[in-house]
Amino acid sequence: MSPFYESMKAVILVGGQGTRLLPLTANRPKPLIPLVNRPFLDHVLNLLRAHGIQDVALAIAHLAENFEQAYGDGSQLGMKLAYVREIEPMGTGGGIKNVEKYLEPDQTFVVFNGDILTDLDLTDMLRFHRENGSLCTISLTSVDDPSAYGVVDMDEDGHIQRFTEKPKREDATSNWINAGTYILEPEVLEYIPAGQHYMVERGLFPILLAEGKPLYGYRTGAYWLDIGTPAKYLQAQEDLLAGRLKLYLAPEGELLWDRVWAGEGTFVHSEARIAGPVVLGKGCKVGPGVSITGPVILGDGCQVCEGAQLERLVAWNGVEFGAKSQCKECLIANDVKISGGSQVEGMAVVGDNAVIDPGQRVADGARVQPGPVVGGR
Ligand code: GDD
Ligand code: MG
User: Is 200's C-beta closer than 6 angstroms to any atom of ligand 1?
Assistant: First the structure.
């Protein structure tokens, strides 16, 4: 662990609505949806811990109790967690301002967007921040289409000239985008108005630049993905299992054979065909004639009945795949029943407790709301 970071604090912004991931986020906040069977936030906390950061404030705007239930005071992870709730969502800047009292008045701190999977070298980013005498250092990653992100223009040495949040594609002047991790000096807190909705991307960064303050972009080729859409949420898990991150939490369970993990009490029939990477949670049952082609991740207590075919998908806990059902490229929340002979594919997303009736086909990015029955019964 780096002595650099011994007492540095971090803020994780976890107050977004996660609307692009609905219905997965209908009953839980985006940072707590599972990524390879662990709450996504575990992966963020793991990165912080690897760089010696133990003291973390979570800036929360909705479903606050879910976070506390998941992590308590953080001691099980060897961390100290504070939960700071906004009555109304205050935006990224408002969220940071709201945790001010948890920060040290004269100490550099780190801010994380809570929906980023990365193996960013925070220790090196802090070195860069200090060497440049920066007030605010923004981690950057390069993407083909920057229009969905904050776009950064800078000098060769990383000195930022301009920050534009979500420009039109034709107006984007650089492929370097805000990767959602900031190292900040406490002075920046004076620029954020208290008690109102405020975005650092549209307020703080442009204002600091207009005042000629030193803002730096830390360019990195580290693994980086915002998990905010269904396709990216699936991609993040595929990448993790393919070993594309240097630092990651390995899947839980026993390695049954090459890249196939199974949790306690999971039974796989000898006539099932499984091609990794596949992660099966605890207490799953995989029947005869089943074919599972990775990347596939199933949570705890899933049942895959005779002849079902599963390919490139994520399903959470208690999902039943009926006999001869076919599921490919889809996301399935808790306790869903996929009846025999039905099909779910084409990046469809199925909400908690939904039932897909026998012979139904759900495809083309369909979002099946929690609870209701598809096909009417
Ligand atoms: N506490 C709190 N309060 N957190 C919030 C609020 C709020 O009102 N609104 C958003 N957040 C959190 C979200 O939970 C997420 O972790 C983070 O702030 C960013 O919000 P998103 O809604 O995911 O923003 P985005 O992905 O469209 O854009 C942001 O991230 C990009 C990188 O992924 C911006 O920071 C872009 O500039 C950046 O490129
Ligand atoms: Mg995001």
Answer: no
Tokens of 121: 């070298």
Q: Compute, in angstroms, the gap from residue 172 CA to the centroid of ligand 2.
A: 18
Tokens representing residue 344 in the block: 């779910």
Per-residue pLDDT, averaged over 305-329, amounts to 98
pLDDT above 80 (res 158)? yes
Counting from 1 in the atom list of ligand 1, the atom nearest the Cα of 91 is 8
Backbone angles phi, psi at 57, to 5 degrees: -105, 130
Q: Which pair of tokens denotes residue 57? A: 């404030």
Residue of 13, 32, 111 with the most ligand 1 atoms within 8 Å of its CB, for mutation: 13
Q: What is the mean pLDDT of the chain?
A: 94
Q: How confident is the model at residue 375 (pLDDT cuts 50, 70, 90)?
A: low
Look at the alpha carbons of 91, 97, 103, 105 in this order and tell me if their dihedral is positive or negative. positive
Q: Is the C-beta atom of 138 inside 6 A of ligand 1?
A: no
Spatial neighbors of 219 by CB under 8 A, at least 6 apart, are 140, 142, 158, 176
- The CA distance from 292 to 270, in Å, is 13
Question: Is the Cβ atom of 177 under 6 angstroms away from ligand 1?
Answer: yes
* DSSP per-residue string spanning 280-344: E-TT-EE-TT-EEEEEEEE-TT-EE-TT-EEEEEEE-TT-EE-TT-EEEEEEE-TT-EE-TT-EE
First to last CA, the chain: 58
- Residue 162, both tokens: 């301009």
pLDDT value for 6: 54
List Cα–Cα distances, 86 to 56, 58, 96, 98, 231, in angstroms.
16, 11, 10, 7, 30
